[in-house]
Amino acid sequence: MRRHRRPPRRRAHPWRGIPATVLTAIACAALVAGTATAAPRSGRPLTTPPDAPGATAAAINDAGVVVGSTRGKHDRTGVAVRWDADGRVTRLPGLPDGGASVAWAVDDRGTAVGVTAGGRFDQVATRWDADGSVRALPSSRPTDTATWAFGVNDEGTVVGAAQSAPRAGHRALRWDRRGVVTELAAEGEARAVNRHGVVAGTARLAGADHAVRWAPDGTVTDLGVPPGFGGSEALAINDRGAVVGRVLPADNGVIHAQLWEPDGRVTDLGTLPGGGSAWATGINDRGVVVGHAEVGGTAHAVRWDRGGITDLGALPGADAGEATGINDRGVVVGWSLTYSASIPQAVRWDA
């Protein structure tokens, strides 16, 4: 896998289903901020499991396997699900003491990671292997009360966060394929990891959230905060080391989708014409970015490429949506929502 409004820092709920789950230098040099390249187009719905009113898709791998969670009307509860390349949906198994769950990322081997509610922890970082087995990932401190797994690479490295008290800050974590856990930052979250083991996330630096990149040896690079903004967050990384996410206003202003390139260049990706806040949630190895942009307070699923920004549209009759993941074939997944029904539907936009 190449795989929300904050401030202040909020606790990640497993039922949101819209991670954790994000350009190459050539692709980014030609980005035209704020220029729409096509009219909105409709995606196609992914099958919803029986007895589940709705679902959200969080990530897709290069084989076309999608992960996410079920959702109900005005209901945060749900269970993690996987769609195979043919669109068949399967509920992922739960932990012995677990309840609600969501899968936020999937690697090219079919390993999914996310979180399960229940047990002695409020929320437990969870790994589902392609063979159907499930296991809880260990915390780094005995006092922890919650852990989350946000990203996974093809080598089996998982990244996420932990918390030792309900109002405490998060700590960035990394688990190797054997499940051995390492703390990357005392305050922060690790959101994504590429095949080289480079991690993207957020660390608390100089009193503010900063997008950062961790090398495999744990060395951290501050990606910075643009002048006039209050913070930044990295949400996805590709195998070339390009990072995407968002920069946060110092007040209640507009959030900007941001790209940090490996050579140090930074690009504001822009928004839809007449739009407001935007943020980027996924990036593939071709440098195509996905996320969402708000127009009139309504979220639109969008894609950024060399031509600029494209409104991906929503399902027929839907009012809002978000793109949450993209694979190297250019297939995008996310969700659409009809306000009157208040039930999300998982969506796939083919390349």
Characterize this entry briefly.
By secondary structure, this protein is mainly β. 1% of the residues lie in helices and 48% in strands.
In helices, the fraction of residues equals under 10%
Number of strands: 28
What is the spatial order of strands in the main beta sheet?
Answer: 1-28-27-26
Count of DSSP helices? 1
Structural class: mainly beta
Largest sheet data: 4 strands, antiparallel
**Morphology call:** globular
Instruction: Report the order of strands and helices.
Output: HEEEEEEEEEEEEEEEEEEEEEEEEEEEE
Give the name of the CATH superfamily.
YVTN repeat-like/Quinoprotein amine dehydrogenase
Q: What is the CATH architecture descriptor?
A: 7 Propeller
Based on CA atoms alone, the radius of gyration comes out at: 18 Å
CATH topology grouping: Methylamine Dehydrogenase, Chain H
What's the overall average pLDDT, rounded?
A: 87
Q: State the end-to-end distance.
A: 16 Å
Share of residues in strands: over 45%
User: Uncertain spans, ≥5 residues at pLDDT below 50?
Assistant: 1-37
